[in-house]
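Usage

Read records sequentially. Each one opens with the input sequence:
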Amino acid sequence: MEDNDSKIVKDELAGDAGSDTENMNGNPGTDPESPETAPEEQNAPAAEEPVEAEEVNTDGGKNKARVSKHVKGAYDYVETFCAALAVLLVVFLFIFRYTAVEGDSMLPTLHGGESSNHADRLIISDLFYTPKTGDIVVVMTNASDYPLIKRVIATEGQTVRINFNTWEVTVDGVTLDETYIKKIENAPMASGNMRSMYGIDANGVCEFTVSKGKVFVMGDNRNNSKDSRYQGVGEQDVDHILGRVILRLYPFSEFGKPAGT
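and closes with the structure output:
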């Protein structure tokens, strides 16, 4: 019995020694606190932590991009506005012109500022313009320091016949339908200097042909208009026409083309 116990003890000691040997050799029974594993743990790289500074920089970049986008948008708006303004300036300087009516010579078609606080505002143009009967034109004349606005009665080569007693105007044999003029009943139309310029017969009729390169104009307010019937104005050079009336802008209630045009 004693020998057997000793043998068991020896076997256990031998087993313990074998286990220690395996642990020291790095087998699965290795002690995690053993000196050989510690250096590996010490040399292991530390886990990287998020860098808050990078997030701040990212937000800053986004803000800069946002500001840059707004600046670019504002610049685009300004550029578009300037381009549109330049186009309008070109249009109104070289194609269309804005003017206001002065005086009463075109009543009742157009109203001037001298007798009304609501003078008509007009758009005129001379682009590719060839005068024709019925047009309302703005013409620069030596008889006045400012342009006159009148209606074209006839152009070069056309024959005009005016009956001052009946207010009837005929151009090339066709009587004009002048429903837009201001006519005074039971009174003759003013003849101005037509008697000395062209002659007027016993019936109050004057007949003449418009000279080359000229137009004969009259105001719609026939008895209150200084126009081609008067020697100071006379027939007007086509080159003196600044433009024909295209549109009435104001008053808004009468927006559009004036009567007879």
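Summary fields computed downstream for this record:
- The helical segments are 2-24, 38-43, 52-95, 194-197.
- Residues 52-95 form the longest helix (44 residues).
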